[in-house]
What we know:
single chain
Amino acid sequence: MGKERKKTAEWVWPLRGLLLALGLYVGIVALIALLTVRGTVGQEAALPAVGGACAAASFAGGVLSARKGNWPPMSGALAVTAGLALCMAAVGLTWEEGIGPSAVVLLACCAVGGVLAGLAGRRPGRRVRGRGQRRKL
């Protein structure tokens, strides 16, 4: 009569992936803002740097969700990506300018990071459903 492990809920790992993605995104954007103010990074390079930060954050959170979660890898990664995109859009709507063309670039970078995480997030050692072993005749 050993202790039985509690099963985690299905939504826990995508939520943890979203929190990781948000934390990484905010941290990297703060670093980029600091470097831009100090003059290390030019203002013309700030948008590509923030786009890369968005893709990297979406990728990291998506891989965490895809590898650890109970959902299929692509679904878990895209759930994190959708959550990050919704948070970015909600913050963008609070500004006076609203969502502009640069925000579309950031959302596209977010989507690319999520798709790459879904492709790379397959758990090692797991068989893919639908592929049967070939029999030798």
